[in-house]
Amino acid sequence: MNWITNYVRPRINSIFSRREMPENLWTKCDECGTMLFHRELSGNLNVCTNCGHHMGITPRARFAALFDGGLFTEVAVPAPTPDPLQFRDQKKYPDRLRAAQKETGEKEAMLVATGEMGRTPIVAAAQDFSFMGGSMGMYVGNAIIAAAEEAVKLKRPLILFSAAGGARTVLKIVVFDEADYRWARDVAGRYPALPLYLQPGNHTPPPPDDDAATVDQAGIDARMRWLVERVVADGWFTATVLPQLHVTLWGNRRGV
Ligand SMILES: [Zn+2]
Asked: Are 140 and 107 in contact (CB under 8 A)?
C-alpha cells in the first residue's frame, strides 16, 4: 500500500511484541470510548482500532515508528540553568519537574535524535505532551537549538514535531525595520503555503535583569501601526500581525 504500512509497521509490530507489555492494561479511546489493550494500541501507533482516532504519542514511540527499523541515536541536549525564574504555582517548579520525570520516565519535554527515514538520514526533534503539556522551558529551547545545530553539522533535513498548543503556531518573524520586512516577504515567497505571523520588535529593549527599566510603549505602538499599514498597503493579507508582547517581556534584542 505504502511504505509506512509495508515497511515500518511490521517492524514496529515486531519491536512492540518483543517488549514486555502487560496484557491486562487497557486505555479508553477519547473519541469513541472503546477499551483498547495497550499492546493492540501501541501496535497500531496509538490510533484507535475502532474509530481511527489519533491519540497522543510519546517522542520515543514516535521515533520508533518514524526511523527505519525503529533505530535512532539520541542527540545530547545541554542542561539548562535549573529553575531560572523560581516559578511557583500550587507547586514549586522543580517539584513539578520531578513529578513529570517520574511519571513519564523522561528527563524533559523534548527528545532529539538522528537516524534514517526511508533510508534518508535525518535529524528529528519531538515534543512530549505527556510531559507537563510539552512545557516549553529552557530545556526545550536548548533541544531545538541542539537539533538545528546537528542538522547543519550533518547536512541533514530537520523534522520538528511540536505537541503543545502554542508551539503549533507556525512561523513568526519579528520586524524591526525595512530589512526585516523584506526578509519576511522573501520567506513568504519561498514558502507560500506556510502561514506567517509578523510581530513588531522593540528597538531598545530593557536589560532582562533591570526591573526599573521602562518600555517604550508609544514606540512599539507606532511600529505596530506601521507594520499593519504596510501589510495592508502591500495587499499581503495572508500574513497576520500580532501585538508585540513577549519581546517586551523578555527584552529580546533580535527576534523571539
Ligand atoms: Zn476510538
From this structure: no
